[in-house]
Specification:
The protein is an all-alpha fold. The protein has ten helices and two strands; from the N terminus they run H-H-H-H-E-E-H-H-H-H-H-H. It has a two-stranded antiparallel sheet with strand order 1-2.
Amino acid sequence: MKVSAADSTRAITATGTFERLARAGYVARGVIYVLMGILAVQLARGVGGESPGQEGAMHLIARQSFGRALLVVVAIGLAGYTMLRMTQAFAGRTPEAGRHSAKDRVGAFGSGCAYGLFCAAAIGILAGSTGSGTKPRATTSDVFGWPGGRVLVALAGLVFIGVAVYQAHLGTSRKFIKDSKSMYMTPRTLRLFTVVGVVGHLARAITFGLVGIFLVKSAVEYDARQAVGIDGALRRLSTQAYGTAAVTIVACGLIAFGLYSVVDARFRKI
């Protein structure tokens, strides 16, 4: 009997190795977000250092004692998370989570691409690359040169804003809880999980929303200098009235999302 690629993929998801790599991915994501939050706190305090983005967090890891070994572990975790999200996107089903909707599969594909790039960035740092990866400003400038490039940049901004709205919805509705095995949590763990999950998703909504707004602004003004990533968005936020307080609040939210991810590594429906 001929076995389809989808059937083979689903069989792989039922293995213990797949589950361990996937859960390691949630831990790696959590570590990255906690460090992003710490770097954002430093930004709010006016302390120089790495940029409060994903690559800045990985550079921070690399500078610590046994930093390279730690970064290898993080890279493996990011690879595991990428694998999980791509499996969700293409297979459409995993053992514990069951069938994924079309919307969830599209989101999983986008997430898988993003974390694949983060994994590649970690490998680049390990390989001794001193670059900071593809800059949003340079990428936007290149896209402006394409036919319909201005529209594409605006659409990318609207996608980020849409993701921000979805993250805010997950946080305020607490629907993220249904993706985890909350029945196995103690009441105290569930309360902590709920609090950090709500705060963390709202912080993600703010950061993604800011990135989206600046991309739309870049398209409207036809100015690639307006395009920024999460680190650039937080830097611009820090220059506004009450910017220090705003960045500090978002930073605490990013740390909360990191803690949520680490707890979720144990209880997530894989």
